[in-house]
Batch of 2 targets.
Target 1
Amino acid sequence: MTIRVLTGITTTGTPHLGNYVGAIRPAIAASYQDGTEGFLFLADFHALIKCDDPARIARSRLEMAAIWLAAGIDTERVTIYRQSDIPEITELNWLLTCVTAKGLMNRSHAYKAATDINEAAGEETDHGVTMGLFCYPVLMAADILMFNAHQVPVGRDQIQHIEMARDIAQRFNHLYGQGKELFVLPEAKVSEDIALLPGLDGRKMSKSYDNTIPLFQGRAKGLQDAIAKIVTDSRMPGEPKDPDSNSILTLYSAFGTTEETAAFRAELEAGLGWGVAKRRLYERIERDIGPMRERYEALIANPEKIEAALQAGAAKARAIAAPFLAALRAAVGIGSFTAAPIPVDKAEATKAALPVFKQYREADGRFYFKLNAADGRLLLQSHGFENGKEAGQWISRLKQEGNAVLADAPAQLAENISQDEVAQALAQLSEAE
Ligand code: TRP
């Protein structure tokens, strides 16, 4: 089975090194695993929830697209697209909204964070909360469920959203699946080792702490300058260092191998100066990032290449999303009037194409049964029985024992029948059970 791996990045900012290590790199790595199929998208509808500065969103999505392409996404194996290029996602968003409990959304961390701040500030609970923010997890569920993703690589802060997507999928499956799983239940995939990269001050690298290291911005010098700002203690070169007293080693370990990292740790403990340590860190990161940065700059200089890649991705994505959405529309009762109806009940639909036993009572007061072929032709007609139970027993015996029953009881069952056709019909029925 092919594992579908899907992830999205909100296009409100310029990704920093933490975003690269925590989200982009693992998604790209996962996409190269055999047996996987990747979906990577720019969550620009989500961006509108957080940001009302059009220029910033526009710049961010261009940069994000260039970053992913430059970072080595294989556009053959991975479908890369803008969320806003897939109208099916917003339609699915509505279908899901209609089955999502408001109470579930009340418990969303993002929403609760906003209301907590309001309450602490003595404001009204929902002050400044838009419906976009409140329903953020539903749109995210639509992103994921649209492509029936199995795995969603995300940061820890997003785990709750994936759980909500599962809840919503389960509810939808239960209501409309007729026993089938319309949606795959997705799983969050948090890369355990370095899901959260520390920033310059040792806290989680985040724009809100203003402690980030840029990915490509400012070129090599930007990287070098940021690393120079990592907070260290004032131990002099030659003095043994505590490698865990700041973020240098952890940042290094996000790029270096286990051996490289162990060697670096030993050097710090042996007294490597912080200045030299920062230079090492810079060089190690640059070894990975430098070649990508070159590709990135070439792409940014040719936006038509990026546009073409995203258009191709959108076409691939929609080829999956459009037929699936049509089936989902039909499942909830808003399908086309003329398209072949999606069976309300698969069993019923199969029955229609199968031979069928019918039991009935005639005006003579006796009980009869007959076997009709799938096309309605009469294959077998019983004589009248005193009671219905007896007729029923013949049917069960025919179903269980097949044609042999006819040899046993020709008198009760009609003559002039094609034994072969009856045998075939009975076999068909037992296969379908
Ligand atoms: N909410 C995610 C974030 O802020 C971005 C996102 C939107 C996403 N839709 C998604 C991530 C679907 C994974 C899957 O990081």
Target 2
Amino acid sequence: MCTPIPGTSTPSTTSVAPQARTMPRIGDKAPDFTAQTTHGEIRFRDWQGDKWTLLFSHPADFTPVCSTELTELAKRNKEFEQRNFKLVGVSIDSIHSHLAWVENLDQILKTRLPFPLIADIDKKVSELYGMIHPGESSTVTVRALFFVDPKGTIRAIIYYPLNVGRSVDEILRVCDALHTADGNAVACPVNWKKGDPVIVPPPKTEKEVAARKALTNVDRLDFYLIKKSL
Ligand code: BEZ
């Protein structure tokens, strides 16, 4: 069904025993692959183009929680597009099952999925991305989310178990936070939402301490904890 692109599955240069590296991590290059999807065959990096990508797994087709998640992602797809994000789902199901489920979701929940679903019947993508957690299930993928930037770097990863549906609000919040942090060289504090004050990164040298002391129009709680509005 899909083929990992040689040389792309172990991108880190850190010396870790191969058997210990079962899944890509934040800061790694997203492993490339070709796969059959409901929108035709894709090579992940080519399909991604210059967009951010949310590669997410769901446990299986024709399951209730997954049905609610995928149709909610579909209904809010425009909100992802506004953030320059493309979505692609993956599960260990055949292309025939995916196609039938897409039709069924359209019929019962009146929602057409605008994004492709990868048919990962041979588990290549799921294993490449560490989406199978045997302690949870050795036959289906957990609810994984990989946020990949336009350069192909994994910027955030979230995992949920089989029995907890994801929050689309939280996923969009992470998209906003990544854009805000990148665009302004800041960090986003607890419970941050778009428009809230952000954190000035803590100083790493005495020179940076002095520079932060000189900042005006900031909420300075201490030399290392400074908030500002954008
Ligand atoms: C669900 O999507 O409903 C589901 C999938 C696997 C295990 C439990 C629930």
